[in-house]
Specification:
The chain is mainly alpha-helical and 108 residues long. Helices cover 73% and strands 0% of the residues. The chain is built from three helices and no strands. The chain has helices at 5-41, 44-63, 69-90.
Length: 108
């Protein structure tokens, strides 16, 4: 155990920061896991809500300095790409709007 006041204070501050960082990291990872689980299950609407929550958590973690901004951008990019892939897979050609109508671009 350190014997002088500045070192004691620095140790206490580091412990507080470590606990806060762990809490923020855990909350963020939980949000990411929930979103990924819903995306994997194919539940688009609830996945969209959970992705928004996860992205918000990532942004908060970056603003608090828990994650580097590039890591935050990478995590957000990955989860949004998965969500967009699910949304694109859910929109099959037989569900498209204006089915059977010729597009205006093809009219000469």
């Amino acid at each position: 155990m350190p014997g002088n006041k500045p070192v004691d204070k620095a140790t206490r501050a580091a412990r507080r920061r470590r606990l806060r960082n762990r809490m923020v990291q855990s909350r963020t990872k939980t949000g990411m896991k929930k979103a990924n689980r819903l995306i994997g299950a194919g539940e688009l609407e609830s996945a969209e809500k959970e992705v928004l929550t996860a992205v918000s958590g990532i942004d908060k973690a970056v603003s608090k300095g828990v994650f580097h901004r590039n890591k935050g951008a990478r995590l957000k990019s990955r989860i949004v790409r998965k969500l967009n892939a699910l949304a694109a897979a859910g929109q099959s050609p037989d569900r498209g709007e204006g089915e059977g109508e010729p597009s205006q671009e093809s009219e000469g």
